[in-house]
Amino acid sequence: MRSFLAFSILIMITTVTAFSQAVFKNGYVIKNSNDTIFGLIEFKGNKTNANICVFKKDAKSEPQSFTPNDIAGYRLENDKYYVAKTVTVNEKEELVFLEYLVDGIIDMFYYFDGVSGHFFVDGGDNRLVELRKNPVTEYYTTYLKRAIPNTKQYIGVLKYVFKDSPEISRRVETIDLSRRSLINITIAYHKEMRADESIIYAKKTLSSELNTSVGVLVGVGCVLFLFFVASSIN
To answer: Distance from the CA of 128 to the CA of which of 18, 45, 109, 117 falls in 20 to 30 A?
Structure first.
């Protein structure tokens, strides 16, 4: 029983270590001079991806870390694409790597600050506008505490951005503020406007993130199962 317990612990450690190891994928970085360097990029979570790019020229090279000050952007092959942009979040201006969701006559971006996600749209004038729900505002009177409901500021912004298509502007009124909804409505707009030059960088991302999440859950499930078996035998 002790040997089985030791074996189970070894399996658990191996599994956890496997999930914690750095994963590098083919990709490239874009220098501020617009030169492109191909190599391997470490695949991390949304918060880390927004602040740093870990790059290696090949599997044997030492990793280099780039911030949004160092490079113009980077991309994982057939996957996420990040560009260095200055944004204002919670009244604070920051230079970060924004995830490019859709590139076309309308550009859509995503940023995760470690607490919540933020979406930005460029309507073609090179200005980034955050899409957000206005926070609930509470105020007091002598006898009353009242909450003002969300005004869904993002709907007004999107209706203006998509104003050249009455149909898309109408559909905007019923969408939620999510990655999938914003990607789908932007794609629909480009089709409506017959803008064939649009690029959907996030098309594969939606499925690849799901596969990654499932893999992690399966791994954690195996660890918990082995621990339960080992405890029962002991």
So the answer is: 45
